[in-house]
Amino acid sequence: MTTGSFAPAGAVVPVGGLTGAKLTFEVPVGATFSAGNAMARFCLSPDGGLAADSQLGTPPFGEIEDYKFPLGQIGNIVFEDRDFDGLQDAGEPGIDGVNVMLTWAGANGTIGDSDDVMYQTTTGPVSGQDAGEYYVSGLINGTYKLKFTTPANMTPTRSEIGGQVNGSTVDSDGSITGMDLSMAMETFTISDVTNMPTNENGLGDASPAAVGTFPDAQTDETHDQGFAFLDYVTTSRAKNKIRNVLNEDTKKIAEEGKELLTRKLKHLKITLNEGVVNELVVFFKLKTSLDLFYRIGIGAIENQQLKDYAAQKSNTLINFFKNKIKRSPSSAPEDINRCLS
Questions:
Q1: Confidence (pLDDT) at 245
Q2: What is the Rg, in whole angstroms, of the alpha carbon atoms belonging to the chain?
Q3: How far does CA 337 lie from the centroid of its chain?
Q4: Are 171 and 224 in contact (CB under 8 A)?
Q5: Mean pLDDT computed over every residue of the chain
């Protein structure tokens, strides 16, 4: 049940009331966050249309309730990786005007279905922040996918070079899919919005004061992305070297993804072999097994999606045997007599 855009009539509760229901309210465009929290006031009444501070009748009719929800914030910089080493070094500037898309997987935790919610922003300096910085605020616990659109005449740089100790603050986190250089993506999970990385202090990280009123523990500034210009590379050999490095990184992630997929399928009582790989490539609408293993390696394919594949595989097998039984002709009487004689 949802109020839509806070229509005056409010949400209509059906006759007989609700049991175990979840009410969803769309946050108004002009809402602001206070110390990393959303403050909400609700007036409960069968009449509807009451003002936030109006209490009519005797509780629970016209009862006013206040709620405080802690929220998270992520960022923070898209930078020019001039030496293509996957790290933001001193003197490597931020890039303004880069499109950043954050997708929340919704209540079911699965990226790519109907309950996903997308947030879009653009890198650019605001008061107290550096060039190339971005932030997405008001996040709750859950699974997210972060996508950076590649600027013109650039390519995503190498991914996860700095390791992931405390999130790693100076490396580029987004990965490419196959050899698609038009974007870089990263999938991650927020398990507790009040216990996010603190004191990141990467080259593009802002102090807590510069990210509004979100506390440091509710601001994760480890989601960085580097891009390198291709126009300064003057020879085909140098350009091929960059592509080869990206390809090597992709293969490395794919190798790790294959091992991870083997373990995941084992829990589902499925042995990874050539036939299963081909089925998975078709199921996820991919082109090659490398794409499959790579997507597993970067977390783009969720456990629930693998469970969906396993369920479909099981149903297909059951239907096969059912059809085979239906098509099998009954033994003729003379055949049975012959077998018994």
A1: 65
A2: 27
A3: 66
A4: yes
A5: 76
Which residue, 252, 73, 81, 95, is CA-closest to 172?
81
| 285: Cβ contacts below 8 Å, ≥ 6 apart | none
For residues 96 and 111, the answer to whether their CB atoms sit within 8 Å is no
- Burial (CB < 10 A; 0-12, 13-18, 19+), residue 183, is middle
Architecture of domain 72-229: Sandwich (2.60)
The pLDDT value given to residue 68:
86
pLDDT tens per residue, range 229-245: 876 554 555 556 666 66
Q: What are the tens digits of pLDDT across the range 128-160?
A: 677 898 988 889 999 999 999 999 888 888 887
Dihedral pair phi/psi, residue 240, rounded to 5°: -65, -35
Residue for token pair 């605001």: 126
Residue 337 to residue 341: CA distance in whole angstroms: 6
Q: SS3 helix, strand, coil % of the chain, rounded to 5? A: 30, 25, 50
Domain ranges of the chain: 1-69, 72-229, 251-323
Distances (CA, A) of 180 to 150, 278, 291, 312: 10, 21, 11, 29
Say whether 66 sits in a helix, a strand or coil.
strand
Contact, 185 vs 255, CB < 8 A? no
Burial (0-12, 13-18, 19+ Cβ within 10 Å), 226: buried
Query: What are the residues whose beta carbons fall under 8 Å from the beta carbon of 152, sequence distance 6 or more?
Result: none
DSSP letter assigned to residue 31: -
Q: Where are the beta strands (DSSP E) in 191-304?
A: 219-220, 225-229
Q: Which long-range contacts (CB under 8 A, 24 or more apart) does 194-198 make?
A: 194/70, 194/218, 196/72, 196/220, 197/166, 197/167, 197/221, 197/222
Give the whole-angstrom CA distance, residue 158 versus residue 67.
44
Report the distance separating Cα 172 and Cα 158, nearest Å: 7
